[in-house]
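Q: Structure tokens for this one, please.
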Amino acid sequence: MLGLSERRVQFTPDLMPSDILGSEVMEQAPDGSRAFRFIRGPVFAQLLMADEINRASPRTQSALLQAMQERHVTVAGQRHDLPAPFHVLATQNPLEQEGTYPLPEAQLDRFLMQIDVHYPDRESERKILLETTGMTEAKPQKVLDGGEIMKLQKLVRRVPVGASVVEAILDLVRSARPGGTTGRYADSIAWGPGPRASQSLMLTVRARALAQGRLSPSVDDVKALAEPVLQHRMALTFAARADGITIRDVIAELAGGIG
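A: Here is the predicted structure, written as tokens:
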């Protein structure tokens, strides 16, 4: 538990942007005067959990663009600031399933990382089975609060990064763009990561080093985080997909060439 105010939104095809951001309603005062009042939507939380985000239409998905980038939303020309810290945690179903809509590239780019959740191994599934079907229910315990999270975020930004790591980040991100590499996957990339990918790598390698008790990150941290940071910021050509090449194949090849 992070001790944050949290809201969960189940994304569905009929969900509207106002269902997330909020809307203005007309209210009549006792004296007969009328005025609009803004009713805040679930986005006004420190942790917004967007469940199955790719089941909503692209129009509704895009409602989070300004919130995720600017930390405020604009409704009827009025700015409404979001609480701090503000995080969006989203799940999405495989695009092969019915009723899913691919997220716009600009939306994907605003997520720090993409972590794929596969089927659990047998022992983990056994534990899930036993602990979720009994009479007792495990209760999460709070380990942090919003203020502590913000202090940790500031601490991460203070972690020094060596020149070799900076160059490794730049080499990796720039090689993941069309025309940026000369390897066997040189013609496989349709579009690649922008500057946000470099920024995300810089922050995540610092956080990984700090979490492991190290004073500065290494090139190995860049390699370890290459896939979760880059995979949702790249796309392959149709020919590459037809040949069975995957994003993971390309990132592994690129990451192996740095350092």
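A few notes: The two ends are 37 Å apart (CA to CA). The chain has a mean pLDDT of 89.
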